[in-house]
Specification:
The protein is an alpha/beta fold. The protein has eight helices and ten strands. The model has no long low-confidence stretch (mean pLDDT 96).
Amino acid sequence: MPSPTMRIAPSLLSADFARLGEEVTAVIAAGADVIHFDVMDNHYVPNLTVGPLVCQAIKPYAVKDGQSVPIDVHLMVKPVDALIPMFAQAGASIISFHPEASEHIDRTIQLIHSFGMKAGLVLNPATALNCLDHVLDELELVLLMSVNPGFGGQSFIEHVLPKIDAVRKRIDASGRDIWLEVDGGVKADNAERVGNAGADTLVAGSAVFSGGRYAESIAAIRTNALAGALARRA
Protein backbone atom coordinates (compact mmCIF):
# COMPACT_ATOMS: atom_id res chain seq x y z
CA MET A 1 0.00 0.00 0.00
CA PRO A 2 1.46 3.42 -0.93
CA SER A 3 2.32 5.91 1.79
CA PRO A 4 -0.48 8.33 2.68
CA THR A 5 -0.47 11.77 1.10
CA MET A 6 -0.55 14.80 3.37
CA ARG A 7 -0.82 18.25 1.81
CA ILE A 8 -0.22 21.42 3.83
CA ALA A 9 -2.08 24.54 2.69
CA PRO A 10 -1.00 27.73 4.50
CA SER A 11 -3.86 30.20 4.76
CA LEU A 12 -2.96 33.70 3.60
CA LEU A 13 -5.53 35.06 6.04
CA SER A 14 -2.72 34.97 8.63
CA ALA A 15 0.01 36.28 6.33
CA ASP A 16 1.43 39.80 6.19
CA PHE A 17 -0.92 41.51 3.73
CA ALA A 18 1.63 44.24 3.07
CA ARG A 19 3.90 41.69 1.37
CA LEU A 20 1.69 38.86 0.20
CA GLY A 21 3.83 37.96 -2.80
CA GLU A 22 6.87 37.45 -0.59
CA GLU A 23 4.80 35.43 1.85
CA VAL A 24 3.58 33.11 -0.90
CA THR A 25 7.14 32.60 -2.13
CA ALA A 26 8.35 31.97 1.41
CA VAL A 27 5.77 29.33 2.38
CA ILE A 28 6.20 27.48 -0.92
CA ALA A 29 9.96 27.39 -0.34
CA ALA A 30 9.19 26.15 3.17
CA GLY A 31 7.25 23.17 1.85
CA ALA A 32 3.66 24.31 1.23
CA ASP A 33 1.79 22.17 -1.28
CA VAL A 34 -1.20 24.48 -1.79
CA ILE A 35 -1.94 28.16 -1.14
CA HIS A 36 -5.25 28.65 0.68
CA PHE A 37 -6.98 31.90 -0.24
CA ASP A 38 -9.87 32.96 2.03
CA VAL A 39 -12.51 35.25 0.54
CA MET A 40 -14.98 36.85 2.97
CA ASP A 41 -17.76 39.27 2.06
CA ASN A 42 -19.02 40.73 5.38
CA HIS A 43 -22.37 39.17 4.48
CA TYR A 44 -22.15 35.39 4.61
CA VAL A 45 -19.47 35.81 7.32
CA PRO A 46 -18.81 38.82 9.57
CA ASN A 47 -15.49 39.81 8.03
CA LEU A 48 -14.15 41.35 4.83
CA THR A 49 -10.93 40.15 3.20
CA VAL A 50 -9.68 39.97 -0.38
CA GLY A 51 -10.99 39.44 -3.90
CA PRO A 52 -10.01 38.39 -7.42
CA LEU A 53 -7.53 41.22 -7.98
CA VAL A 54 -5.41 40.05 -5.03
CA CYS A 55 -5.61 36.45 -6.25
CA GLN A 56 -4.40 37.61 -9.65
CA ALA A 57 -1.56 39.57 -8.02
CA ILE A 58 -0.21 36.56 -6.10
CA LYS A 59 -0.59 34.06 -8.96
CA PRO A 60 2.91 34.72 -10.40
CA TYR A 61 4.40 33.93 -6.98
CA ALA A 62 2.60 30.56 -6.67
CA VAL A 63 5.33 28.65 -8.50
CA LYS A 64 7.84 25.97 -7.53
CA ASP A 65 10.51 24.60 -9.86
CA GLY A 66 8.74 26.18 -12.81
CA GLN A 67 5.42 24.51 -11.96
CA SER A 68 2.29 26.26 -10.68
CA VAL A 69 1.34 25.64 -7.06
CA PRO A 70 -2.46 25.32 -6.72
CA ILE A 71 -4.36 28.30 -5.34
CA ASP A 72 -7.26 26.95 -3.31
CA VAL A 73 -9.92 29.68 -3.16
CA HIS A 74 -12.39 29.30 -0.29
CA LEU A 75 -15.42 31.46 -1.03
CA MET A 76 -17.20 32.56 2.14
CA VAL A 77 -19.57 34.74 0.15
CA LYS A 78 -23.25 34.84 -0.74
CA PRO A 79 -24.32 34.70 -3.52
CA VAL A 80 -21.41 32.76 -4.91
CA ASP A 81 -21.86 32.23 -8.66
CA ALA A 82 -20.97 35.72 -9.88
CA LEU A 83 -17.45 35.50 -8.39
CA ILE A 84 -16.54 32.17 -9.97
CA PRO A 85 -15.66 33.54 -13.46
CA MET A 86 -13.65 36.32 -11.83
CA PHE A 87 -11.53 33.91 -9.80
CA ALA A 88 -11.10 31.65 -12.83
CA GLN A 89 -9.65 34.59 -14.72
CA ALA A 90 -7.52 35.48 -11.67
CA GLY A 91 -5.81 32.08 -11.70
CA ALA A 92 -7.59 29.98 -9.10
CA SER A 93 -7.01 26.21 -9.34
CA ILE A 94 -9.72 25.11 -6.91
CA ILE A 95 -12.87 26.90 -5.78
CA SER A 96 -14.76 25.78 -2.71
CA PHE A 97 -18.09 27.18 -1.59
CA HIS A 98 -20.66 26.69 1.14
CA PRO A 99 -23.94 24.96 0.27
CA GLU A 100 -25.85 27.66 2.18
CA ALA A 101 -24.45 30.25 -0.24
CA SER A 102 -25.77 28.63 -3.42
CA GLU A 103 -29.35 28.45 -4.61
CA HIS A 104 -28.45 25.44 -6.77
CA ILE A 105 -25.43 23.49 -5.54
CA ASP A 106 -25.17 21.26 -8.60
CA ARG A 107 -25.29 24.28 -10.93
CA THR A 108 -22.51 26.02 -8.99
CA ILE A 109 -20.33 22.92 -9.22
CA GLN A 110 -20.94 22.73 -12.96
CA LEU A 111 -20.05 26.42 -13.30
CA ILE A 112 -16.71 25.86 -11.54
CA HIS A 113 -15.94 22.91 -13.79
CA SER A 114 -16.87 24.87 -16.90
CA PHE A 115 -13.84 27.10 -16.28
CA GLY A 116 -11.51 24.12 -15.87
CA MET A 117 -11.18 24.42 -12.10
CA LYS A 118 -11.65 21.79 -9.41
CA ALA A 119 -14.77 22.13 -7.26
CA GLY A 120 -15.05 21.81 -3.50
CA LEU A 121 -17.95 21.94 -1.05
CA VAL A 122 -17.39 23.43 2.40
CA LEU A 123 -19.26 22.17 5.46
CA ASN A 124 -19.39 24.28 8.62
CA PRO A 125 -19.15 22.52 12.00
CA ALA A 126 -22.95 22.27 12.28
CA THR A 127 -23.70 21.55 8.60
CA ALA A 128 -25.12 18.06 8.10
CA LEU A 129 -23.40 15.63 5.76
CA ASN A 130 -26.54 14.87 3.78
CA CYS A 131 -25.74 17.74 1.39
CA LEU A 132 -23.02 15.42 0.02
CA ASP A 133 -25.50 12.67 -0.83
CA HIS A 134 -26.14 13.75 -4.41
CA VAL A 135 -22.99 15.71 -5.31
CA LEU A 136 -19.99 13.85 -3.88
CA ASP A 137 -19.27 12.21 -7.24
CA GLU A 138 -18.99 15.65 -8.83
CA LEU A 139 -16.47 17.06 -6.34
CA GLU A 140 -12.68 17.07 -6.24
CA LEU A 141 -12.54 18.36 -2.68
CA VAL A 142 -14.57 18.37 0.53
CA LEU A 143 -13.53 21.02 3.05
CA LEU A 144 -14.61 20.57 6.65
CA MET A 145 -14.46 23.66 8.82
CA SER A 146 -13.17 22.96 12.31
CA VAL A 147 -14.05 26.51 13.41
CA ASN A 148 -17.00 28.69 12.51
CA PRO A 149 -15.88 30.67 9.44
CA GLY A 150 -15.06 34.35 9.53
CA PHE A 151 -11.85 34.84 11.49
CA GLY A 152 -8.38 33.36 11.76
CA GLY A 153 -6.77 32.24 15.00
CA GLN A 154 -9.79 30.38 16.42
CA SER A 155 -9.55 27.18 18.46
CA PHE A 156 -10.13 23.78 16.89
CA ILE A 157 -13.62 22.34 17.52
CA GLU A 158 -13.04 18.78 18.68
CA HIS A 159 -16.44 17.39 17.72
CA VAL A 160 -15.48 17.81 14.06
CA LEU A 161 -13.11 14.81 14.34
CA PRO A 162 -15.84 12.13 13.98
CA LYS A 163 -17.25 14.16 11.09
CA ILE A 164 -13.88 13.95 9.31
CA ASP A 165 -13.95 10.19 9.82
CA ALA A 166 -17.49 9.95 8.40
CA VAL A 167 -16.55 11.91 5.27
CA ARG A 168 -13.38 9.87 4.79
CA LYS A 169 -15.49 6.70 4.74
CA ARG A 170 -17.83 8.24 2.16
CA ILE A 171 -14.91 9.26 -0.05
CA ASP A 172 -13.27 5.84 0.21
CA ALA A 173 -16.58 4.17 -0.67
CA SER A 174 -16.90 6.40 -3.75
CA GLY A 175 -13.61 5.11 -5.15
CA ARG A 176 -12.74 8.61 -6.34
CA ASP A 177 -9.66 10.74 -5.64
CA ILE A 178 -11.33 13.48 -3.61
CA TRP A 179 -9.26 15.63 -1.27
CA LEU A 180 -10.48 15.83 2.31
CA GLU A 181 -9.38 19.20 3.64
CA VAL A 182 -9.73 20.51 7.20
CA ASP A 183 -9.53 24.21 8.04
CA GLY A 184 -9.62 25.97 11.40
CA GLY A 185 -7.35 25.85 14.44
CA VAL A 186 -5.10 23.20 12.87
CA LYS A 187 -1.61 23.12 14.36
CA ALA A 188 1.15 20.67 15.20
CA ASP A 189 -0.49 19.77 18.51
CA ASN A 190 -3.70 18.44 16.93
CA ALA A 191 -2.49 17.49 13.42
CA GLU A 192 -2.02 13.85 14.43
CA ARG A 193 -5.67 13.55 15.44
CA VAL A 194 -6.79 15.30 12.25
CA GLY A 195 -4.69 12.93 10.12
CA ASN A 196 -5.92 9.94 12.10
CA ALA A 197 -9.52 10.99 11.46
CA GLY A 198 -8.87 10.80 7.72
CA ALA A 199 -7.91 14.24 6.43
CA ASP A 200 -5.27 14.45 3.69
CA THR A 201 -5.08 18.25 3.27
CA LEU A 202 -4.57 20.55 6.26
CA VAL A 203 -5.11 24.30 6.16
CA ALA A 204 -3.00 26.15 8.71
CA GLY A 205 -2.90 29.91 9.11
CA SER A 206 -1.56 31.29 12.37
CA ALA A 207 0.19 27.97 13.09
CA VAL A 208 2.43 28.61 10.08
CA PHE A 209 2.72 32.38 9.91
CA SER A 210 2.74 33.54 13.54
CA GLY A 211 6.08 32.08 14.60
CA GLY A 212 8.09 33.13 11.55
CA ARG A 213 9.60 29.63 11.19
CA TYR A 214 7.61 28.53 8.18
CA ALA A 215 9.57 25.41 7.23
CA GLU A 216 9.71 24.16 10.80
CA SER A 217 5.99 24.74 11.35
CA ILE A 218 4.93 23.10 8.07
CA ALA A 219 7.20 20.11 8.69
CA ALA A 220 5.85 19.60 12.22
CA ILE A 221 2.22 19.71 11.06
CA ARG A 222 2.93 17.31 8.18
CA THR A 223 4.94 14.87 10.30
CA ASN A 224 2.29 14.66 13.00
CA ALA A 225 -0.58 14.40 10.51
CA LEU A 226 1.21 11.61 8.63
CA ALA A 227 1.76 9.76 11.89
CA GLY A 228 -1.97 9.92 12.51
CA ALA A 229 -2.77 8.75 8.97
CA LEU A 230 -0.39 5.79 9.31
CA ALA A 231 -1.91 4.83 12.65
CA ARG A 232 -5.36 4.86 11.02
CA ARG A 233 -4.16 2.31 8.48
CA ALA A 234 -2.52 0.06 11.07
